[in-house]
Specification:
- 35% of the residues lie in helices and 24% in strands.
- It has 295 residues and is α+β, with helices and mostly antiparallel strands.
- The strands form four sheets. The chain has a five-stranded antiparallel sheet with strand order 4-5-10-6-7. It has a four-stranded antiparallel sheet with strand order 11-12-13-14, with helices on both faces.
- α11 runs antiparallel to α12 (243-252) and α12 (243-252) packs across α13.
- The radius of gyration is 19 Å and the shape is globular.
- The relative contact order is 0.11.
């Protein structure tokens, strides 16, 4: 059923790097919720695997010395959703990963595996884009940090160099402090389904809660990789809180997104949904931030 040539279990990040150097054709496996399915389907027949699942140092959520939220790449979706730091500072990420698959998938699926797959439909990806997340990568040359927008190269391809391991995802303090967010996933059914479109919005309001100081709007399945909407974000800044503003900003996302026709949904339908869920997510983010929206 599973055509695996060899499985090597890493005891530490350094050990994983060594194994990947010794076996350059080997691929990393963490929870296995995607990799094992692909092997069973014959897409990775005869593969060599380096398992990093036993490296407990890659699990958990904490603050780093600069106040950034550090999420270990092996942290499961269930643990992210339940973590007190996530709940206090960026609850929208917990809400987003709670929409991944069913309970079994959320218990074993990891944030690192979800992002390293490079797929645009990953529920965590658009939310991490909206938080200006930083990806930490550790390899033979040491540690490097990459903005998540640069980590995604094209559909299914991310910037992982040979023998590198994604070790953490960081949310800078400046990216979450004072921001409130909402994520909306549109799918044909409520559970156990891949998104037809996902939209994640963060806003920061002025001190008097009457003006949008800053906004970040990100999408999944609106292009080959997750993406931000710079035109809509620029339009939102400095705007007073009103239904008219929300409508204008939501319509502006069409200047930046590039959905396609597929068997799941037509391009025109995705564009329609993109505007509608942007309105809803923007409105909810403003309300979470204590804003009052004029009619």
């Amino acid at each position: 059923m599973y055509d695996i040539k060899a499985l090597y279990e890493a005891e530490s990040v350094e050990d994983a790097i060594r194994l990947l150097q010794e076996h350059p054709q080997a691929q990393i496996i963490a929870g296995g919720s995607d990799v094992l399915v692909q092997i069973r389907e014959g897409k990775r027949a005869g593969v060599e695997l380096v398992s990093i699942y036993g490296i407990d140092a890659l699990r958990g959520v904490c603050y780093d010395e600069e106040g950034a939220i550090r999420i270990g790449s092996l942290t499961s979706f269930s643990h992210i959703a339940a973590d007190p730091i996530i709940r206090e500072q960026i609850p929208v990420l917990g809400e987003a990963v709670s929409l991944v698959g069913g309970p079994q998938i959320r218990n074993i699926g990891t944030i690192g595996g979800n992002t390293c797959n490079g797929v645009t439909s990953a529920d965590s990806a658009s939310t991490l884009f909206a938080w200006d997340a930083i990806v930490e990568l550790t390899g033979p040359e040491g540690i490097r940090h990459l903005p998540i927008r640069e980590f995604y190269i094209k559909a299914g391809v991310v910037d992982l160099k040979p023998a590198e391991v994604q070790t953490a995802i960081l949310i800078p303090k400046s990216s979450y402090e004072g921001y409130f967010g909402n994520y909306i996933k549109y799918a044909m059914r409520e559970a156990m389904d891949i998104a037809n479109l996902g939209c994640s919005v963060n806003v920061a309001l002025s001190e008097d809660r009457k003006v949008i100081r800053d906004a970040r709007i990100a999408y999944g399945v609106a292009g080959p990789v997750p993406m931000r909407t710079p035109s809509a974000e620029a339009l939102a800044k400095g705007q007073e809180l009103s239904e008219e503003t929300i409508g204008k900003v939501a319509r502006a996302v069409l200047q930046d997104i590039h959905p396609r026709d597929s068997w799941r949904a037509a391009k025109a339908f995705r564009e329609h949904i993109a505007v509608e869920i942007a309105k809803r997510a923007l409105r909810q983010s403003i309300l979470l931030g204590g804003g009052v929206i004029r009619e």
